[in-house]
Amino acid sequence: MGATYIGISGWRYAPWRGKFYPPGLAQARELDYAARQLPSIEINGSFYALQRPTSYAAWYAATPPGFVFAVKGNRFLTHMLRLRDVEKPLANVLASGVFELREKLGPFLWQFPPNFAFEPERFEAFLRLLPHDTDAALALARGFEERMQGRVSLDAGPKRPLRHAVEIRHESFRDAAFIALLRKYKVALVVADTAGRWPQVEDVTADFVYVRLHGDKELYASGYEDEAIARWADRIDAWRRGGQPRDARLASSKAPPRRKARDVYCYFDNDIKVHAPYDAQRLIAALAEKLSDAGAA
What we know:
The two termini are 16 Å apart.
């Protein structure tokens, strides 16, 4: 069975203070607290601006052994350049300090805007660039732009694998050719629950699965009821055992390569009304119960 990482997207939210975070907890200690309630967190600030090596190093120090970060790729590549001439900007992302996360560095998430349609050649050029281990990432990072001088970290440490996932929001990606491209480059397709606003496609395209739960009734706001948590536990249990849900919403008729197990990363992004951390804890409990029931059987 694959490893399962259930967590939240970001951790600095004012409405969480005094609710999820204990009253009086210093803002500087919020990551420390959240990381002891959940095994993984998606870094959200890296989407809006390049972070600094000192920040990544501090986040590493604030989290316990075994903790895993997912890193949201910078929107300059996906939303502004729209994947044109992105080699230098990608080098900037990799040089900006992500290596400071060391063994806690999990998958990179690349999210695309709703008006970004599937263009096979442009998309394949991007997938071809993505490094799949830290040695390849370091080689690319060394090409960072001059403006990054003084705020880079190029100590990648021992060679480790890297993973990438893409989140799409345009209907044109519901295409077997897109699924074939992701499988060719071993990049995961994000399974995104967006209250029906954007496509939910569930083809397995890599040796891991990446899930983002934005709210099933109201985007970013609604909490998941017990029935919904149980449903997602069933789906994650199928993926981590190397299979896929029987009712998976597929864009391709071709089955994924067989595996005995797949790791699953799942992040709740329904943060507006403080549902995300509690829903994550409930899903963790539901998955643990499945293991307990399987052991008893």
